[in-house]
Fold this sequence. Notes:
By secondary structure, the chain is of the alpha/beta class. The protein contains ten helices and seven strands. It folds into two domains: 6-160, SPOUT methyltransferase, trefoil knot domain (Alpha/beta knot, 3-Layer(aba) Sandwich), CATH 3.40.1280; 182-250.
Amino acid sequence: MSQGPAIILVRPQLSENIGTTARAMLNCGLTDLRLVGPREEWLSDRAVAAASGADRVLMAARVFDDTASAVADLNRVWATTGRDRYMVKPVDTPREAAVAMRSVIAEGGACGVLFGPERTGLENDDVTIADTVMTVPLNPDYCSLNLAQAVLLISYEWYQCAAPTTLPAMTKGADDCGPAAKEKLLTFFGHLERELDECGFLRVADKRPGMIRNIRNIFQRANLTGQEIQTLHGVVHELVTYRRKKGESQG
């Protein structure tokens, strides 16, 4: 968890949306939830259920009478909107805003993001209080987000600014420690190639070297673990055993 922007819901209409907003925030490490003029029943059982474990954010939410009071301690504020307000203000995407927020906070400042009521969005007077407008670049023919979706999208961009840029290429099982040592892989190649010689698969002498290289490269690309190599040994062994038993029964 780290200090992050305040999420300010202006006159939210449904308690469930406040709960899902808290859930979206905590997923991205944000905890400063502020509510401007919510309905009296905003902290209902429905809100708690919708928070789905993010109670710490929901219960710590602060309530304000007006937007000006909610942003009074902040140094920079973004207002989210999906339509042109015909005001002279800079416009950021969520990604651009996230980088700017990191800069503000790194310099010791505080910032926040305004979200309007579900049905109508922010009023122009609320947007006027903000320094910058934030707009999500979506399908121009349909760019409607519900409240929690908008909060999650913007919170995610904030979180990604400091999160690792890459994920592990492969998850690991409980007993695996990554790719097997080459010794194990080469031992398996020897086992497989002996049996392929035995069954006649590699019978064409001038093609044998190329076929072996192709087979080895197939398994090299698989980045096999030690456990997977043991499994392949077992597969080869069972196939050989079956072939021999079948040959004996036919003989």
